[in-house]
Amino acid sequence: MKYGYARVSTVGQDLEGQLQTLKNEGCDKIYSEKFTETKRNV
Predict the structure, then answer these.
(1) Are the beta carbons of 3 and 27 closer than 8 angstroms?
(2) Adjacent-strand bridge partners of 8
(3) End-to-end alpha-carbon separation of the chain, Å?
(4) pLDDT tens across 9-30, in order?
(5) pTM of the full structure
(6) Do the Cβ atoms of 27 and 1 come closer than 8 Å?
(7) Which residue has the higher pLDDT, 6 or 36?
(8) Do residues 30 and 6 make contact, with C-beta atoms less than 8 angstroms apart?
């Protein structure tokens, strides 16, 4: 079984391109995460 992982970290990014690439590469199971602009006060 082939696994894939896709992740974006800003609102402007889209997972779809990464997901399509992983599907084209034959991944059987794909995990994905979408984090939106998190700011930390230092």
Answers:
(1) yes
(2) 34
(3) 43
(4) 887 888 999 999 999 999 999 9
(5) 0.72
(6) no
(7) 6
(8) yes
Q: What is the pLDDT of residue 3?
A: 98
Residue type, 17: G
Give me the helices (H) in 1-42, please: 16-24
CA dist 35 and 15 (Å) reads 11
Angle at 20 between CA 3 and CA 28, to 5 degrees: 25
Residue 3: phi, psi to the nearest 5?
Answer: -105, 150
Q: Using DSSP, state whether 11 is helix, strand or coil.
A: coil
User: Token match 């992983």: residue?
Assistant: 22
What residues form DSSP beta bridges with 3? 29
The two tokens of residue 32 are: 């994905």
